[in-house]
Each structure stands twice: as C-alpha cells, then as structure tokens.
# Entry
Amino acid sequence: MSRLIVVSNRVGLSRDVGGGAVGGLSAALTAALRQSQGVWFGWSGETVEKFNGQLALDRVGDVTVARIDLEPRDIEEYYNGYSNNTLWPLFHNRIDLTHYDRASADGYARVNQRFAEALRSVVGPNDVIWVHDYHMIPLARELRKLGFRNRIGFFLHIPWPARQLLTTLPGHQALTDALFDYDLVGFHTDEWLSAFTGYLRNERGIEVDAEGSVESAGRRTRLGVFPIGVHAADFAPENASEASIQAQKRMEESLSGRQMIIGVDRLDYSKGLEERFIAYEQFLHDHPDQREKVFMLQIATPSRDAVEAYQDLRGRLDAVAGRINGAFATLDWVPLRYVNSGFRQDELAGVYRSARVALITPLRDGMNLVAKEYVAAQDPADPGVLILSRFAGAAAQMKEALIVNPYDREEMAQAIHRALTMDPAERILRWRALKDGLERESLDGWWQSYLETLGATPRPAPKIVRVAGTAP
Ligand code: ADQ
# Structure
C-alpha cells in the first residue's frame, strides 16, 4: 500500500483524537493516515520573522505530523489575504466582499511554493499526496515543477463558483489551469462539479470526456463527486460519552419545558446568521402564542477575526440579537441565546439531542456537516426536525429535511412554526430517511472512495528531459 501524505493549511490531528473532543473531518483524515503510517503536513499556526523551511516533526500514534512556520507577511497575504479575502468570498457568491490585490496573489503563490519545497524532504517516490481546499490550489503545479511524479489529488471543501463570478477574478485562468496538475479533483456535489465543467467548457473550450476526465496541456485529470459525511456513531445517543450526557442534561434543565431551536456554525457571513435571526424575529412576530414556549440557541464560534468582513458581521449580529431580545424578552424568558464559544464534539452531540429543531440556513455552503451531525444525534423515538437551506451542499442529499430559501424570511418563519408543531409520526418518518442517508454516505466511505479513485488514476508519465543537441 502506498503511504498517504495529507496536505492542508492547518494540521487537524491532535493527541485528543478519539476522545470525542475533535471534529469528524480531522478524525477521518487521521484514520486514513493511520492505514499507511502516513504524514499530515501543514502550517504550524506559528510565525517566524524569516522563513527557514524548517520542519517540526511529531509523531501521534502511527501518524507523523510535519509542520512549518510561516512569516507574518505570508499570513497576511496568503491566509487573510488571497485565501480568505479573495477566494472564500468569491467562491461563496460574495463578490461585494471579494478583494483582490497582486501582493496577496503573490503571497498565495509564494506560500504554495514554500509548501512544495518543504515537502521535498517528506515525500517518497511512491507516496500518494492528498491536498485539501482552496488555500492550496496551485500546490500540485509547484510540486510538478520540482519533478514530483506522485499521484496527487485535490479536494475542494467549498463550492465552485459560477463562471460569471469566477471570471471577475484576475488570473482565473492560471488558477484553474493549476488544477490540471492533479490526477483527481474532487467536489462535494454534482452542482459544484458542473459549475467547474461549465466554466471549462464555456470559458476555456475544454470538454470533459466520457470517463469524466479532462485533458489539458498533455495532462489528464479525473473529476469526481465525493459527498462528505459524518461518523454517525460518534453522535448516536447509545454511544454518548459522559460529557455528552452532562451537556444534554444541562440543556434539558435549562429548557424549563420550552422547545429549543439550535443553530451551530462558524461565525461566517456564508452561514446566513443574520438572515436566520431576522427569520426567527419574524416567527416571534407572526406567532405570539409561541412566544415563551420556545427559544433559539445560536452557537457561533468566531473565526478569521483578522479579516474586516468578519469583524463587521460580528457587530451586526450583536445588534440584531440585542434588538430581538430587547423587543421580546420577558422577566423569565430570553428568546435568543447567542453564544460565541466553541464546544467539544461530544458536548455538541448532547446539545443537538435536546433541540426540537435545527435551523441550518447557510446562504452558500460546500456541504455543511452540522446538519448531518444533528440528524445523527437524535433519539430515534423522539427525533427533532431539520430545517435546511437549499443552498447547502447537504441539501442535495437531505431531501427529507424542511428545505428553505434563506433569503425568504417569511418562508423560514413558516418552516420554524411547522417544525415546532410537526406531529411525532412525521418527525420519525423524515428522520429515518435522513438517518438512512447518513449510513449510505458515511465519513469513512468518503475518504475511502476518494483514495480508491485516486489510486486507480494512471500514474503521471515521466517528465521527458531533453538534452540540448539530441533529436526530439
Ligand atoms: P465549515 O465551513 O467549517 O467547513 P461545517 O461543514 O458546518 O462548516 O463544519 C463545521 C464543523 O465544525 C462541524 O463538525 C461542527 O460540529 C464544528 N463546529 C462548528 N461550530 C462549533 C462550535 N461552536 N464548537 C465546536 N465545534 C463546532 C468547510 C465547508 C463546509 C464543509 C466542510 C467539510 O465550508 O461546507 O461541509 O468544510 O468539507
């Protein structure tokens, strides 16, 4: 078996893996790495004044963790800049928040070169390299320039934007061309894949062949859809840890007989938090009889604080939450509990279980794992109802949820009412179908089918080095 090298901006692996503390994606990649005693490579989260390419190696069980430090300028240009101020908003349809400047684009290219250089001392000739997400699109190109002939795959965790948006990005051609240096490019949904192939066809004149591959500049790249799932057993009530049971108990005590609506997200403008709060406000306005019988708990962990758009969003959410509570709260009822801290995965499972409704309404989302985690955590005899945005990648699979348009606050308010008053038979029917879907599209199935497909791609041809004076 080939050894696996996972490359991502940050390394998710920690000594806590398996203890219920860390999220599913990290645990899944750790499981994939364990199989072949692989290496997880990424930025350490630390900065050094002058880049030195020094690798910090650490061993966690059977897996090696390799990290490099970056310069403060790298973080500013590559991470806060091009990744999170250019690609993230653009790929989430927020052209109004998309900032482009050449210094950031250059910083992005430079860090990808630095990653490639540092990987030289890590990667052997038979290793398979799996690169994750939008921070690292040009990595394979840099690796090929250095002579790497390994199988290299890429997986995009976020949506692929419509052609009309992508073409506003200076250098979009070079960015997408860089994907052709991978042997396999994976997306979460058919929709993101077809946005990509639509761009190739209509903008670049590149067609996908019958086998789902594209050929460009003599390289062949396979394209595929690999919807990520969750490890449902980790959230299931029968496997609840002590921390999970305690979290559920604590929540249930604080319900005081009321029904809870839950939202759990990174604090990000793509998650539709402001629209969600306003829809909840509409619901409270439309249904005076429901007031004091229900409350909403929104957990939103701050992220990317150094980016201005995130600071602005935080201010707006504080204001809307304050307005709702100011207008509707009574002496012993707060309609919206808004919490900005993070929780362990097993604690979240307990919280999910005590919520009658989950309101997961991103404006655009590659997949959205919270929707799946909520379903996985429910009590089969008395499950809650999932309200899900049609613009989450997960909506392609989770059709039995109440699907809403997050831009339509009246529709969302109606869906909240419907979910809260849904009879148990319908709740069970919908939940069972959703749970079956989780079993079909599991987290382990995701990485296994991706790596199987990558392993079946033809090995890249050797680079022909022509010596001056020899015949072509
Ligand atoms: P994210 O945008 O981070 O991921 P999501 O899929 O919802 O979005 O994953 C969030 C994860 O973080 C979940 O496992 C959730 O439990 C956890 N989480 C969120 N808030 C938390 C909190 N307060 N405390 C603890 N844990 C919390 C990106 C893409 C998604 C895609 C994933 C995976 O944007 O569309 O589904 O990658 O590919």
Notes: The chain has two domains: 4-229+444-455, 233-440. The chain has 15 helices and 15 strands. The first helix runs from residue 24 to 35.
